[in-house]
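ok trying again, last paste got cut off:
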Amino acid sequence: MIDEATRTELCKEFKVNPDQCGDYEVFYQTVLLKKVQKKYLSHLVSSVEELINKKRLAKNNESPAETDKKNDSAALNDKIAQLGKFSILLCALNIAKAKTYEFEAGVIIAYNENSVDSDKRILIAHELGHILNINHSDFTDTQNTANIFTFFAINGKNEFYKNKASELIFRSESEIISKISALCPITQSNQKSKIR
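nice, full thing came through this time. structure:
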């Protein structure tokens, strides 16, 4: 929870009342953060989905490179929708380790809900290795190759957290507020959004 000085600074800088600030804080802490914390390896999962979807497009004689050159994401999304987008869902269950269940539209990776977070990440990455081997790469799908993929996936995330993440961390809450104000200035209360 943020302290009173930060709350006051937020309200003043972004021209909101304390109740609005409190409502967002409670929503973030009690709803959104719990969901974010359960999205293990979400960048990796979405990257594997994207690779598989682009390969499925290519198999149907539509070059992903040609679609990308058009810079028309709507056309790419339409093509994927026509094919049925391949999706990877994660599901915490009371199982021994992890298991992948395949469906026409994608897979569900079930993992042990009682494992420690670092183990969950390894189990999920291992299952992603199988999924990538079967649906995208020319690699033979074995436990061995899934483990190799797991190493590179977990090590890549580990290196990011050790080396790159520090560049993304702000020194204080005030610095975050200042950066938001500089990039997304507020000139009046209830300023209208540009999104419509």
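cool. The radius of gyration is 21 Å. The chain has eight helices and three strands.
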